[in-house]
């Protein structure tokens, strides 16, 4: 059975790679030779992605803040 760290690395690399590829595909929508869109359409995409990034950051920050602090005490 793999340990938690190796699973995190394996899945993290795969998922970030996939997310990066999907973001590039979304970026292709900016090509006005192939697509018609408004500034409002683009802003809706930015807002959706920004919202998800904020949720992602909050999950990691919450998890990291729950970790016990490394404290050394002699008494």
- Structural class by helix and strand composition: mainly alpha
Average pLDDT level: 93
Low-confidence runs of at least 5 consecutive residues: none
Terminal Cα separation, in Å?
39 Å
Largest sheet: none
User: What is the helical fraction, as a range of percent?
Assistant: 55-70%
| Cα-atom radius of gyration | 19 Å
According to DSSP, the number of beta strands is 0
- What characteristic shape results from the CA principal axes? elongated
- Helix tally? 2
* Beta-strand percentage range: under 5%
Secondary-structure element sequence? HH
Report on this structure.
- With 75 residues, the protein is an all-alpha fold.
- 69% of the residues lie in helices and 0% in strands.
- The radius of gyration is 19 Å and the shape is elongated.
- The protein starts with a helix and ends in a 10-residue tail after the last helix.
- The model has no long low-confidence stretch (mean pLDDT 93).
Task: Give a quick summary of the entry.
The protein has helices at residues 4-28, 39-65.
Q: What is the strand and helix layout of this fold?
A:
Blueprint: H1 4-28, H2 39-65
């Amino acid at each position: 059975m793999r340990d938690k760290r190796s699973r995190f690395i394996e899945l993290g690399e795969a998922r970030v790679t996939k997310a990066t590829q999907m973001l590039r595909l979304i970026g292709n929508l900016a090509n006005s030779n192939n697509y018609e869109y408004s500034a409002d359409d683009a802003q809706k995409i930015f807002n959706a992605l920004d919202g998800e990034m904020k949720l992602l950051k909050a999950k990691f920050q919450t998890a990291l803040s729950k970790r016990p602090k490394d404290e050394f005490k002699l008494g």
